[in-house]
Amino acid sequence: MEHTYNDLLKEIGVDLALHDQLMEYNTRHHTMSYASCANRPAAMRYFDESFHASHGERVAEVYGYRKRGGKSIGTFCIYVPDEIALAAEVLPIPLCGGSHWSVDYADKMFPREICPLIRSTFGMAFSNTCPYKKLKDGVVGETTCDAKKKAWDLLKFEVMEVPQKKNERDRDLWRAEVRAFKEYVERLSGVRVIPERLKASIRLLNRKRQVLQDINTFRKLPNPPISGLDALLVSQVALNQDLNAFMDGCERLIEELHRRVEDGVSAYAMEGPRVLIAGTPSPMGNWKVHYAVESSGLQIVADETCTGIRYFRDLVDEAPDDLEGMIDAIADRYFKIDCSCFSPNTERIEHVKKIIEEYAIDGVVQNILSFCHGYNVEAKVIEDMLAGLGIPSLKIVTDYSYEDLEQLKVRIESFRELLNSRNAA
Ligand code: BJ8
After folding, report:
1. Which residues line ligand 1 (CB under 6 A)?
2. Stated pTM of the model
3. Which residue out of 80, 115, 174, 375 has the highest number of ligand 1 atoms within 8 Å of its CB and is therefore the one to mutate?
4. 341-393: pLDDT as tens digits
5. Whose alpha carbon is nearest atom 10 of ligand 1?
6. 3-state SS, one letter per residue, for the chain
């Protein structure tokens, strides 16, 4: 384990001994998961390094930014509009945890019967192993699932109200919330959001999403040059690293993927059924289900999650030039996100159908985090829709621990056999 940043981590209140344990745990699972990949692009090195840098070099960058007077906020959900934060010179830091190592530390405040994403995130904060704990000037939660909503109450965070339906009056409420968020970040930094700055941040984040779309387009090919595990790592890194460095890393990857396609190089050693992962996100540290699926001979060619298509599918309309028009365009883009907290969530069904067609999906694995009632209940709607299309699906409800890995693999292998027999017929 590298100790280059220990002085800094200590200065910002990180418990070094526990932090070493956390990093040892995460590194072990990262190594195990990615050692299973047959043929990784060389350009993935940047993303592997970024996994470590998120607890070292990136921390130093954020620290330096704040030392120079910059402001930052912690966030937990892709509903928080980064464009507006950046236009007010506030750096958003997504804080969702994906490691099983920290979940028990959440007992200090939270019941055990809630989603591991929430427990892992706050377990890191309570054990003083989250390096960003003291590197922020505010925290913004959102009214998505019940567990998150109530967590924000306990912790007294700033909260954006995400409506639960998608009618016109809900859109108006959301537009008002986005305007309130603008005022919040302006107050925090003392920097007014002006049209020029907002336009620039809209373009920057559209470019970031476009780059992610470009990478994922390669996954539509019959022999994908990038695996599902690698595509997941790219999405995880997207949430933490410096934007320009991230996009440079993606450009290098795209160039290599083009070369691989020309040379007929696949990321997979053998052919296998093409699957879509649908459901809850897999933040940094959580590679379990992707590892179980791909090491069982399936190819994950798309992720219908917030660490996948849900994050980069929609761009902000760049046509408006006036401030109000731009804010509405941003609000409308985020309002298209099809989280299971919406009722009804018909857009999600249509989106899944579209992915199945575009990515030539043979089967769907619904990956649901334990105690995520929204995605778990909605899984039945997805399953019924898939049955109507003749697409087999497998629902996995699991947490971050690796205890059930072998059981998962047994279920996934029989799912692979089912898909293989259908493909052979
Ligand atoms: S837009 S999926 S990032 S809320 S998995 S904490 S929903 S109990 S993470 Fe999410 Fe925003 Fe929705 Fe995406 Fe709750 Fe479910 Fe846990 Fe979740």
Report:
1. 77-79, 115, 117-118, 144-145, 147-148, 280-281, 306, 337, 339, 341, 369, 372, 374-375
2. 0.97
3. 115
4. 999 999 999 999 999 999 999 999 999 999 999 999 999 999 999 999 999 99
5. 77
6. CCCCCHHHHHHCCCCHHHHHHHHHHHHHHHHHHHHCCCCCCHHHHHHHHHHHHCCCHHHHHHHHHHHCCCEEEEECCCCCCHHHHHHCCEEEEECCCCCHHHHHHHHHCCCCCCCHHHHHHHHHHHCCCCCCCCCCCEEEEECCCHHHHHHHHHHCCEEECCCCCCCHHHHHHHHHHHHHHHHHHHHHHCCCCCHHHHHHHHHHHHHHHHHHHHHHHHHHCCCCCCCHHHHHHHHHHHCCCCHHHHHHHHHHHHHHHHHHHHHCCCCCCCCCCEEEEEECCCCCCCCHHHHHHHCCCCEEEEEECCCCHHHHCCCCCCCCCCHHHHHHHHHHHHHCCCCCCCCCCHHHHHHHHHHHHHCCCCEEEEEEECCCHHHHHHHHHHHHHHHHHCCCEEEEEECCCCCCHHHHHHHHHHHHHHHHHHHHC
